[in-house]
Amino acid sequence: MIDMNNFIKTRSVIFISLMIFFVWFLLIPDFLSAQDSMNDDANSLEVKIEELEKDFVDFKINKNLDAARQEITVVDQAIKYSEKTVDIFLKILGSAIGFLTIVLAVIGWKTSRDVKKFAVNETRRIATRYVKEEFEDFRKRLQDLSKEFSELGKEFSEHKKVSKLLEEANTLFREKNYQDALSTYDKILKLRPNDTTHILQHKAVTLRKMQRDEEAIDLFDQIIKLNPSLPAPYRLKGNSLMTLGRIREALENFDKAIKISPDDPETLGSKAGALVNLEQYDEAIKLFERALKLNPKDQYITINLSFAYHKVGSFKKAYEISNMGLMLDDPVVELIVNKALAAAALNKRQEAIKLFEKARSMEPDRVEVTYCHARMYSLLGDFNNAIILLREVKSKDKKWWEKAKRERDFENLRNYWSSRAQM
Questions:
Q1: pTM here?
Q2: What distance in Å separates the CA atoms of residue 341 and residue 175, rounded to the nearest whole number?
Q3: What pLDDT, on the 0 to 100 scale, is given for residue 376?
Q4: Which of helix, strand or coil describes residue 227?
Q5: N or C: lower Cβ tally within 10 Å for the chain?
Q6: What phi and psi, each to the nearest 5 degrees, are found at residue 392?
Q7: What's the rounded Cα separation, in Å, for the pair 188 and 171?
Q8: Which of 277, 330, 335, 329 is nearest to 303 (CA)?
Q9: Closest listed residue to residue 192, CA positions, set 164, 232, 171, 215
Q10: 234-246 tens-digit pLDDT
Q11: Is the pLDDT of residue 14 over 80?
Q12: What gap in Å lies between CA 273 and CA 235, rounded to an integer?
């Protein structure tokens, strides 16, 4: 069966194709001629278009120039208007600034006044508080100073009283009024219980002079406990131990003092004296010589050095040392006795007699001086004067009389006395 739709479509396509061919065939010559004329027209039209373009460009340029002139005119007017506007604005702004300046000045003045008032009030408040605090602090310090001055006044009054008592005690000590000196030192110790070191030492030395060495040693121990770095208490304690015959203990204390103060001539002399008691004369002489170089005017050292030289048989040296000591101011009896003994050993017996007489005139109650004087008379053969002096010695201390019965220097006197008794 034939499809009608396909048939109709096919016939339509063929018909249209034929129509197009027919039209193309009939119209192509005219179309070609028309195309040529159209080309000519187009060329002439292009020429005209170019002319028109030139004319248009010229017109446009002129038109643009006119427009530009108009725009320039408008811009000039705008600039002038702007200048006027700016001038007016500046005037307005100047007026505003002036007004604002006035307002700000008024505000600033008011603010400055308020600030000044606030500052004055605040400063016054702070100053008042500070002054009040400072015044309170000053008042407290003034009270403290008042108390301190009051205490210082009491202390000064007490110190003045103590100084007076100390001077009084030292005077009594020099006058050998040891008991009253001791009582005065005790008064000072009651007034100044916390300042006892040097007062205790004065008291201890006084006890030594009173031959109360055991009590003195106790006080020296107290001083050493209070201040173990002081050399003097060790030395003085050693001297008391020497008096009691405790030589080894004395040497221990002298060594402690020397360790603290190695160049103290008094301590060196004290140790040398202890060595003399132990009959260690050579070591003693070395210490005495060293001490004498440190203090050439120390009569105690001079006395003991001359005695030590006498003990080792250096009588000439003993005589020279004694003589050197006697050239010092205010010579003591011991030096005169030592020189007299050295003179006697050097067979200067008449000089020795004169020296003993001088010594006895200075201290007539010194038993040992009288005894030595009697011994010199015995050696010189002046037995009558020797007996007179020995009787004086016997009345004062019988131990010296007993010693004269045994000593070799009195052997001739004993023989003389025995022969008189037989007569």
A1: 0.56
A2: 30
A3: 81
A4: coil
A5: N
A6: -65, -40
A7: 15
A8: 335
A9: 164
A10: 999 999 999 999 9
A11: no
A12: 12
